[in-house]
Amino acid sequence: MVVVAVAATLAVLSMPTLSGTISNAKVRSVTEALQNGLRKAQSEAIVRSHQTAFVLTNANPVLAATPAANGKNWYVQVLPVVASETVDSTFFVQGGSFGSQTSGVTITGPAAICFNSMGRVVANPTPGLGTGVSCSAPAPTTTFDVTKTGADRTLELQVSAGGKIRMCDKSRLIVSQPDGC
Fold this sequence. Notes:
Blueprint: H1 2-48, E1 52-57, E2 73-78, E3 92-97, E4 105-108, E5 112-115, E6 121-122, E7 141-148, E8 155-160, E9 165-169
Antiparallel strand pairs: 1-2, 1-5, 2-3, 4-7, 5-6, 7-8, 8-9
């Protein structure tokens, strides 16, 4: 009985640590998937020598799905050169989902980012992604914050105007640790 009581006490004491670790892992998993999607959009822009968009959505990740700033899915689409150009299935590059990891995870950032043929962030007021959706003028750094209730870390994904994509931990300082923000 003593062994069972000690084991139960240890299990109860380790639960908050375990749930925090699981929450942190979900935040990291979503941030890595977001980073991979952005890099895919950037590399497709370079390979195709054509402007592409990385888009967050809550719909199925298909061509021209409605963008959403806190989307649970994402897709990469080649953008038309002129508004009158017919967009067909060849414009869809790839889509993905953040999967079950998104339960309680919040992504804060733009609904869409556009990359030019050199892999740099570019402004596009009418990318053809739906009403009211634009790729805003590139700031020195565009950021996505990924958080989850119960996680003790907030990860930030930084996309510089020059095209550098970097993940960092907001709880750490860059002057003291390389993975800090």
